């Protein structure tokens, strides 16, 4: 499974009352639709976008990191995609998605007339073959676990007896194809799950679920050289370590067709170099400001009128290393949460550019119901003090974070509130770099409360909970384990309908909040900048340039 | 003594004489006897308004540093976001910073750390430099050659770069008491600045070595240590003292520079430099956050530099 990323990302208090040009309300340039076609510059021009060298060849099932992810995203369109503004999942290539009453079967009807970039039609078979290929253990595709819930997955992908790092290869699975996938006709196929899993629909916008053309199966090596997708952008060329060029696919039938002719994903050697290039208009789009640009809010002056900040699928929180006996007491953890006045910090330190968290997911996630944390995430001096006294904590509350990301201000502010409310000493312990902290977290050697930020893969609350709070989750760094929560999450994963799943996830969140293994703080926006060559720039909630919207100025 | 007028006359006469005696070097000098360099300098200094102003400021700062609680009743570390960035008022003379902390109280309590760094680093620099300089100057030859080369190595290090490297190396060592933080900065500063003091001392020692009284002492069989401490040290002290006074002021400013870069002092040793560093992002929205500590810093550095100038003029009239 693509490992969602702990965010090194940097937050900087926005000093000046910056008007966030939130993409949501700005539809002025959107209405003219084909208007972009009349613009000559769009027909010939190239937009260069900051990227990083893809880890693997551009095969969607094997691309789980952001560098290749954003290119694969552009080149392929699956059954579902996400609204670039609300991140709501909507049908893309799927004409209709039907879920059986028990939630165990999902039938996809495809739109007719879609083709791959090589002209061959996109059929149901292309999906089924691609998914089987990705899930098949010996193919070693990184996205294999995305098909875990499909019936028959355990027959094509056997667990490695000594772990992924071990010397022994995983045994050859008994089947090559998942029994849960069935082609009905050219434009229809059916998925059967081992347990009800209607929430599957929401995950489908992730590129791992893309179809692959027949040419891929005939000659994978050739495909890796010149990938053929079915998305709005067609592969042109790739210079390893430097750039990938794609051009608009004119026969594309989807709604997210591009307006400009070419898009170039460039890989400058560092974010700092990329930033300098954007300032000089040599690079058109940078999705994350490097810390050096955030310091003192330089980016706002350097990129005046061509930078912005957008909400992404990310949440800022503070985590307790639960393996340290100091933090064993639930009362203590709840007391800290209730001693922090999120409202006040977001208003003063962040100038209102953050939203206080009310649960364990970002408010950008569709279907997510706020308020799971309830009173526990609201400032309540009396209750906090009462809980704190009950916990019997002695000593100094220490909160640590990387010092290079501009976190000092808000940690200091939170510390001040903790001291004022609980009467306990509290201090910020800066650590030089994010890597240094991650090392200690991975080795389970943390002794201080630490800042943690999470960027989700797909807009589903599940992605904020399962990896972090489920026993043995891929990013469960603190050893949090509550069988009741595990059971509730499992129940939600296999709920019979999406609404039911959302309700169950909400319940799980409520249970997690009672244990308070981490304190949700606020939504974490990302700052981005662009060159003077562009107009209609906006960033999607998964931190990519909205290529269907951008135009050349 | 029953006549008040006579008593007053006698008194004023008496005090006049005492002052004169004092000017002659602690009352030991008699009329007509040549005054020492130090008493001469003191007599000179007392008449300089620059010196008096600087001394008053510095004395005041010392009192503030030692007894900050006399000047403010506010807790410098109490945070309250509801008053974040409020401008000066009768409640808080200098207003509040981003965290809602009283800037005046913080500046008052910060005096201690800023002065401590300045004084500590100046003392260390002078002690290291003076000892090595004296030894090099007195013994000469191979000793001088070796010590001078060592000094040149340190002299060759760019100051800010060197300080960044040293402080970075110690930064993650888990030092977190205020005093230890100050000592770390003091150590870094003196390690990088002693060569200048050493050179000053060395050249003074070389010229003093040629003086007759040193030769006489040696002829009488005095040991090297006795000559160095009894005869040379007192006579070489003037130039280095001048240097130290000026250095003190500049060290306070350097500490602010390093703290601004995020490698000098930090919580809990909140100096003016730390305050300036914390305030830099808010210069456009709340300039008072930066202007007050910066102003105090400027006045303090100015006072020390003025004092150093005056002392130099008095001790080393050639340079005037």
UniProtKB/TrEMBL annotation, chain B:
Entry's family note: Belongs to the binding-protein-dependent transport system permease family.
UniProt domain ABC transmembrane type-1: residue ranges: 111-308
Entries under Gene3D superfamilies matching the protein: MetI-like
Keywords from the named record: Cell membrane, Membrane, Transmembrane, Transmembrane helix, Transport
Cellular component aspect of the GO annotation: plasma membrane
Ranges that cross the membrane: 50-71, 113-138, 150-171, 177-197, 240-265, 285-311
Compartment(s) of residence: Cell membrane
Identification of the protein by name: Peptide ABC transporter permease
Keyword Cytoplasm: no
Membrane topology: Multi-pass membrane protein
PROSITE patterns cross-referenced by the UniProt entry: ABC_TM1
Pfam families listed in its UniProt record: BPD_transp_1, OppC_N
Gene Ontology annotations of biological process type: transmembrane transport
Entry-linked InterPro entries: BP-dependent_transpt_permease, MetI-like, MetI-like_sf, OppC_N
């Amino acid at each position: 499974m693509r490992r969602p990323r702990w965010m090194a990302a940097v937050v900087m208090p926005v000093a000046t009352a910056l008007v966030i040009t939130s993409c949501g309300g700005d539809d002025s340039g959107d209405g003219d639709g084909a208007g972009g076609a009349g613009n000559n510059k769009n027909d010939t021009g190239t937009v260069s976008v900051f990227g990083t060298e893809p880890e693997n060849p551009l095969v969607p099932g094997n691309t789980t990191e952001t560098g290749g992810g954003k290119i694969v995203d552009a080149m392929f369109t699956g059954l579902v995609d996400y609204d670039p503004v609300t991140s709501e999942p909507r049908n893309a290539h799927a004409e209709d998605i039907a879920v059986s009453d028990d939630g165990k079967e999902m039938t996809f009807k495809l739109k007719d007339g879609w083709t791959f970039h090589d002209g061959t039609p996109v059929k149901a078979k292309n999906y089924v073959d691609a998914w089987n290929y990705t899930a098949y253990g010996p193919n070693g595709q990184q996205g294999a676990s995305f098909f875990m819930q499909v019936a028959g997955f355990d027959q094509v992908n056997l667990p490695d007896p000594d772990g992924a790092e071990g010397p022994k290869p995983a045994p050859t699975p008994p089947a090559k194809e998942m029994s849960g996938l069935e082609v009905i006709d050219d434009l229809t196929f059916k998925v059967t799950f081992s347990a009800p899993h209607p929430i599957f629909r929401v995950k489908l916008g992730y590129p791992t679920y893309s179809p692959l053309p027949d040419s891929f199966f005939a000659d994978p090596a050739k495909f890796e050289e010149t990938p053929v997708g079915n998305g709005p952008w067609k592969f042109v060329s790739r210079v390893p370590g430097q750039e990938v060029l794609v051009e608009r696919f004119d026969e594309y039938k989807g709604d997210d067709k591009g307006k400009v002719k070419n898009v170039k994903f460039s890989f400058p050697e560092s974010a700092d170099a990329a930033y300098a290039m954007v300032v000089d208009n040599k690079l058109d789009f940078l999705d994350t400001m490097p810390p050096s640009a955030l310091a003192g809010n330089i980016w706002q002056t350097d990129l005046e009128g061509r930078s912005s900040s957008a909400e992404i699928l990310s949440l800022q929180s503070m985590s307790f290393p639960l393996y340290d006996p100091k933090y064993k007491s639930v009362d203590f953890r709840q007391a800290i949460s209730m001693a922090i006045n999120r409202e006040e910090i977001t208003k003063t330190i962040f100038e209102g550019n953050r939203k206080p968290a009310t649960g364990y997911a970002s408010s950008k996630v569709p279907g997510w119901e706020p308020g799971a944390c309830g009173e526990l995430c609201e400032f309540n001096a009396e209750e906090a003090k009462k809980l704190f006294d009950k916990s019997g904590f002695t000593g100094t509350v220490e909160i640590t974070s990387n010092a290079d990301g501009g976190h000092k201000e808000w940690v200091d502010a939170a510390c001040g509130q903790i001291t004022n409310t609980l009467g306990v000493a509290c201090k910020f312990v800066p650590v030089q770099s994010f890597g240094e902290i991650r090392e200690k977290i991975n080795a389970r050697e943390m002794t201080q409360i630490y800042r943690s930020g999470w960027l989700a893969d797909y807009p589903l609350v599940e992605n904020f909970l399962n990896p972090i709070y489920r026993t043995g989750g891929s990013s469960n760094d603190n050893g949090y384990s509550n069988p009741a929560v595990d059971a509730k999450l499992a129940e939600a994963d296999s709920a019979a309908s999406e609404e039911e799943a959302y309700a169950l996830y909400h319940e799980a969140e409520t249970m997690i909040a009672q244990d308070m293994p981490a304190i949700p703080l606020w939504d974490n926006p990302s700052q981005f900048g662009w060159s003077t060559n562009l107009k209609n720039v906006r960033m999607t909630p998964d931190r990519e340039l909205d290529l269907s919207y951008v135009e050349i100025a | 003594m029953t006549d008040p007028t006579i008593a007053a006359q006698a008194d004023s006469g008496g005090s006049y004489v005492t002052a004169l005696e004092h000017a002659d070097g602690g009352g030991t000098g008699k009329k007509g006897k040549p005054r020492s360099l130090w008493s001469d300098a003191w007599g000179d200094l007392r008449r300089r308004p620059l010196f008096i102003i600087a001394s008053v400021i510095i004395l005041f700062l010392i009192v503030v540093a030692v007894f900050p609680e006399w000047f403010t009743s506010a807790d410098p570390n109490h945070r309250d976001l509801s008053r974040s960035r409020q401008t000066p008022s009768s409640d808080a003379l200098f207003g509040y910073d981003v965290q809602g902390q009283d800037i005046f109280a913080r500046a008052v309590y910060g005096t201690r750390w800023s002065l401590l760094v300045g004084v500590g680093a100046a003392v260390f620099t002078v002690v290291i430099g003076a000892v090595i300089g004296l030894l090099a100057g007195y013994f000469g030859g191979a000793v001088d050659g070796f010590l001078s080369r060592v000094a040149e190595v340190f002299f060759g290090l760019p100051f800010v770069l060197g300080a960044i490297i040293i402080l970075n190396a110690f930064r993650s060592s888990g030092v977190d008491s205020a005093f230890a933080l100050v000592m770390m900065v003091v150590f870094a500063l003196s390690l990088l600045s002693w060569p200048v003091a050493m050179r000053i001392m060395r050249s003074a020692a070389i010229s003093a070595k040629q003086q007759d009284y040193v030769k006489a002492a040696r002829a009488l069989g005095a040991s090297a240590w006795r000559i160095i401490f009894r005869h040379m040290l007192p006579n070489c002290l003037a130039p280095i003292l001048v240097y130290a006074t000026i250095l003190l002021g500049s060290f306070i400013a350097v500490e602010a520079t390093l703290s601004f870069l995020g490698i000098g002092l930090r919580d809990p040793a909140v100096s003016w430099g730390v305050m300036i560093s914390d305030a830099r992002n808010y210069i456009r929205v709340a300039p008072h956050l930066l202007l007050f500590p910066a102003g105090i810093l400027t006045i303090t550095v100015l006072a020390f530099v003025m004092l150093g100038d005056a002392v130099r003029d008095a001790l080393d009239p050639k340079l005037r």
